[in-house]
């Protein structure tokens, strides 16, 4: 067992099966020694909103000895939900980092948001995790946001374990959770525990690998009692043995060692707990299967065993990352930023995951994206919104530092520019790529989704304009999903975000954190324009810079492209003359042209919305090599505006997938509300009096939906929504959409 410190000797008790038994009682003890990298676990807690992940995190901190009393979400006093808005709303908005010891290991845990509006925070945190704990509400199984965070985790190839929470509820259904994992997430679940109920109340768990029953006693479940099951335990023994055989059979299908044992012994019995545990760890790290545990965080049942599973089955930093890159850096610093927050006393606090080397107080670092150096002031270990200053944090760990002003989320850092240059050259030779490609590989690539909502925001007076701009700058740096732009026509400041709640939280934080009552305009939809035709245009520009005249001739063609097209500009080499001409194009001028294209695509010809689904071809380019990049970019931008106008664009609107959960008795009201909003019903499912309705709805039709749903169902229904795609606006409604964008009917 992973826990060794005996809390008290023997306690004679009757089991739920009326058999006199002896339980061994243990109190889990946290160690405070320094941890080798193989004893470090960097994990995230992922879940649908209200599945109980913050409550689960709070229990982990309590049982590890990190806090003396447990907070509750509904009381607004949890450790990881430390923002005023989080405690007021009872949801997680930012990712909070917490470090705590458990059973001779160190766990660095990131409690991520569960609301879809804050999905960018989840993405940044996932990038630095080695493993994940997916928390399910066992009365609901796999829900909409569960699917989203699971897909995100799989994009980063993160091994996960599942915790079926809220097993104390009367409608808890472990089978529903397992079916959801198979059917919705398309994974192989490995059930490692079965719940024990007495008079329909959750009283403990049976570990089917060790064939032991566990009870969690004491005022807060802090004392764990265990009992070895034997044949005299009757039903409990038979149920556990049957579940163990199913686990062995499932492992035999995906693990060679277990398969060899089963074939050799011609039996599912006889395999040791150690062999099963090692096999579960192997297939988890290989992402062939997902261990499933159960319990109730709120009722203090099963969280200690969940923490044991984190240590036993999730990978250490040594099990996870690109060995070539880690070996390349060796003892040199290599780390990634995953979060930035601003503290009134400390200033900007930057959170790093360290892959190699170490972060030290007053250390100078090099930012690969910005290609610039900065100096760290203090190095700290994070405890949500509290910090402990240290001199050094080593590889495999999470650290928070002060003193950095230009570093952003997703940035990679190293010890010096010379170090990165030398290592890029080494990596380029090894992988047979250019040094530029090697540098880009080391620097990573952060993809931020486009916002779907926006609104205007202004300072209430000129006297607070500077403070207002600083507030926006700080919030933008903290939240990569927040866009702050200036309308070129009106000069107004525009906020772009992932949802109504996202922008509402930004407004609240400006008021609460910076004491500014900003003037916020009505919520608007982020429409797009899509290229519908083909066109080819030549644009000639003559610009005098000082005493010199700069002539630029650009010929561009444009055509429709799929949404996932990444090749924005290609060079026309269809003839020997063109191929020769394109070979004379300097890299500086090519970059300038791409900047010109990108800037012009922010304002389409139809209604001034950003353009997508376009692919450009450079058919001809002529200028002097000394022509400034700004002149080339400007000429290209003007050519793009002409060619887009010639090709024509159509209007697209964001479509959302909405999932509404409501009692059966009022589901007709929900259906009527969705139909009124032009919703396309995709699926309707019913379970124990609750109807779940899934539909695709245009975002423009969802403004005010939350309020209307709350009123029409007396607050008994809830919903989530997730961006699906940009699709053409209904022709009969295009005029209204254009009026919403421009203020005038076409």
Overall pLDDT score: 85
Give the overall silhouette: globular
The unreliable regions are 1-33, 73-77, 79-83, 85-95
What proportion strand?
25-35%
Which structural category do the helix and sheet elements fall into? Answer: alpha+beta
* Biggest beta sheet summary: 8 strands, antiparallel
| Count of helical stretches | 20
Gyration radius, to the nearest Å?
A: 29 Å
What's the helical proportion of residues? Answer: 25-40%
Strand order within the widest beta sheet: 18-17-23-14-15-22-19-20
**Beta strands, count:** 38
Q: What is the CA–CA distance across the termini?
A: 72 Å
SSE layout and pairings?
Blueprint: E1 6-14, E2 20-27, E3 40-47, H1 53-63, H2 84-89, E4 96-102, E5 105-111, H3 119-126, E6 131-137, H4 144-155, E7 160-165, H5 174-183, E8 189-191, E9 193-198, E10 201-207, E11 212-217, E12 223-228, H6 235-252, H7 256-265, H8 273-285, E13 290-294, H9 303-313, H10 323-329, E14 334-343, E15 347-356, E16 358-360, E17 364-367, E18 372-375, E19 379-383, E20 386-390, E21 392-394, E22 398-402, E23 412-414, H11 417-431, H12 435-443, E24 453-458, H13 465-478, E25 483-486, E26 493-497, H14 500-514, E27 519-520, E28 524-525, E29 528-531, E30 535-545, E31 548-560, E32 569-571, H15 576-583, H16 587-600, E33 611-612, E34 614-622, H17 629-647, E35 649-663, H18 667-676, E36 680-687, E37 690-698, H19 705-712, E38 718-728, H20 734-742
Parallel strand pairs: 3-5, 3-6, 6-7, 7-13, 8-13, 29-33, 32-34
Antiparallel strand pairs: 1-2, 2-12, 4-5, 9-10, 10-11, 11-12, 14-15, 14-23, 15-22, 16-21, 17-18, 17-23, 19-20, 19-22, 24-26, 24-27, 24-28, 25-26, 29-35, 30-31, 31-34, 35-37, 35-38, 36-37
Helix pairs in contact: 6-7, 11-12, 16-17
GO molecular function: GTP binding; GTPase activity
Keywords: GTP-binding, Mitochondrion, Nucleotide-binding, Protein biosynthesis
Domain Tr-type G: 38-318
